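Question (not urgent): is this output format expected?
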Amino acid sequence: MVVALFAGLASHSAEALDAVAVRQNVPAIDLLPAAEQHRVEGDRIQVSTAPGPDGIVRRIEVRAREPGTTSNWLVFALANNTDEQLDRLVVAPHFRMVGSGLVWPDLGSIRIVSLTPSQGFRPEQQNDPGSDTFLVTLDPGATVTLVAELRTPQVPQLYLWEPEAYKAKVNSFTLYYGIVIGIAGLLALFLTILFVVKGSVMFPAAALLGWAVLAQIGTTFGFWARVFDLSTETQQIWRAGGEAILAATLVVFLFAYLNLSRWHVRYGHIAIGWLVFLGALIGLAVVDPPMAAGIARMSILAVAVLGFCLIVYLSTHGFDRAVLLIPTWTLLLIWVITSGFTISGAFLNELVAPALLGGLVLIVMLIGFTVMQHAFAGGGLAGAVSDIERRALAIAGSGDIVWDWDVGRDAIFTSPEAEQLLGLKRGSLETDAAGWLETLHPSDRDRFRTALDSVVDQRRGRIAQQLRLRSQDGHYMWFSLRARPVIGSDGEVVRCIGTMVDITENKTAEERLLHDAVHDNLTGLPNRALFLDRMDAALGFARIDETMRPAVILLDIDRFKQVNLSAGVSIGDSILLTIARRLTRLLKPQDTLARLSGDQYGIILLSEREPERITAFADTIRKTLRTPITFANREIFLTASIGLALVDAEHGRREEVLKDAELAMQVAKRIGGDRIEVFKPALRAQKPDRLGIESDLRRAIERDEIAILYQPIVRLEDRTVAGFEALARWNHPRLGKLAPAEFIPIAEETGLIVDLGLFVMDRAARQLGAWQRVLRLDPPIFVSVNVSSRQLLRHDLIQDVKGVLARNVVIPDTLKLELTESLVMANPEYAAQMLSRIRDLGAGLSLDDFGTGHSSLAYLQRFPFDTIKIDQQFVRPSASGARPVLLRSIVAMAHDLGMEVVAEGAETEADTIELARLGCEYVQGFVFGEPLTAEEARRLIAPVPAEGQRAAAGR
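Got this back:
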């Protein structure tokens, strides 16, 4: 008793149950609502029995058959209140699709290991491969408590069946299962046979789907378990693998039927990746069937939904195969949704699962019909066709317009497609030859009529013409007509038949290409090729009419490269467009304006014949170009160098006229720009040779041909000379004095600017040192030297500055290096490092042309400049007399940054007064004189006393 007491305390106990009343006329009773499920530690359970007729509750203990640390139990009680002995079957199915679960589903297992009664004989287990079935005998008036040992915690269903009713139910479902499996097998075999006969790729895909459905149905119905004697664990693997195979075959069928590889290669990649994933899922089914089945079910849902969206999309884009598949795939989507509700437990009816599997077979049957309908459609065309049929099919496939002229009846037939293109009424082009010719462009009628007459008269030949037909709104469309005559038995032409093709787009593209070939892409003006062609025509007119004197005017924008660098290429293009519009407004219809190169324009002037009026017109062009161009509250002033050549009897070719005008323009630019130069034969002797200039420039420094001039920089406070800007001038032995614009660009291109810049810096520093030793002014005089981009980008610049300062003793910060704003902003990080090191050497730094580039104030604070030079476009007043509003702001900003201000471009006394009022320290301009030689600059600073001259001579 003590041992029993301790055993009872250590084991799990349960309260007494309510017994389920069993009646004779009830075929089946659901026992799960009345059953209690327990999970206990250990291998035994103690339960209280349901009270019998005497009301006594007993305690029983049941030991588990299968050893383990935990055990699962199901306890229920049955009461026979009748006067007869009752035999009933307790049935727990191994697998039930209803409520099996979407994620990590229950794929079936042995549910009840043993069934122990509280009294009477132990229930006898029946031979039932699909469920755990036990025969229970209930005596009259007895109440029996049954304790079921469970293999798994899940019991999907537990029913108490009347044996004959259960047998009838099994037999009825067995018949249904056999019919469905038979239909599925025949369908899979039929689709396989069709694949062998037809050979289309759609049939093996459909056959694979049919076999996959057959395998899935056989597994779910337990057919394969009976045939191959499969264990419950093996059946789990088969169920999970079957669902993965079903998902894979759906992907294969959808890809093959819709032929997705023709739409985009990405579809093929997606399908292959999906199949590889599902193949791995089949391997996972061997290791973990529930996980594999859950993923496969989600995959089937994804295939159904995404496939439906894809089918609808392709259907809306005119793909016939997709249209045929819409009804079947809609049923598949409904089937998948219904299956989801079933396995989630929303539908509990016993008939739902068999009905769903039967519906799956029906869907595969519909897929087979769809595949056959598409594969065998148009079978009449699969055989041999005649040559005439083949030609008719080719014309129908090409979409060409049929053109047929019945010569005997003089009736022309044209396909309705032509009338649709032209917007004409149906039958408008079905008329006689004369009426059809009326729709042609007047320029094409005679040519087409001649072609028709030639074919009829010669009884051979072809018509191959491009012609224009008038549309409803009056415009013309281009067509290409190709036709040939048909000869009758009498040798005469009975009809002429062929095709027409719309070539309007080709003609438009051809015209556009022809236009672009002879016109400038930016301005739309004629280019050099068309300009030369029109010059030939002008020369021809001049030979016929002696009173006509064509004039060729070439103009080149001065300093346009600097405008592009400072303002940007987009603004530069806008400036070129503005110039083209201004010049166009000055011309008359008989004149020609062309863009010959980047900033060079050419004009053929025919509207003026008198030389005085021609030169006056050229001056009008010059004044028009001087008008400032405004962009974003910023005025840009431009000038042009204009060369003019008058055509006379000596000019035989267009090249000679163009060269003369170019020579006159180059002379105008060399002199300084913003001027008109009329060609004279004497200019040919002065024509500069660029290669010669380059060669001479290489030796100019050695020959001491480079002269240094000094332009004064005046202190506005007392109007004294504060310093100079060193400017290089070339005294060429043959060409004379050359302006910087004539040789500096060549020096930049060839790299000679580095040697030239070092030469100017050394000479200017030597002269500055000599002035400072003699004059000893306070504050000291300074000299500014320009630095080019090639010099700044060389690492040797620091060594050059260091060497110049070592050779020439000057007061610190009085030798100033001028760098343009666009130059330092091209590489601000590198420029900041270089300038800081140069400043440490003792050289001053000046920011030149401030306001013309794209600078950043953040970088400006980092640059160690001590002086800002304001560009002259901010100094000069506008046409209304007002100065740019930014001038005051620039001066104030420079002072806030601790910099001095030099204003360039002062031309009048009023300019100096206004600049002094704004706070500028220094001014530079022609109002204080032209660039001077060193001796002239020395006399401008202060007169040299006699003893000073002697001392200087002694030194």
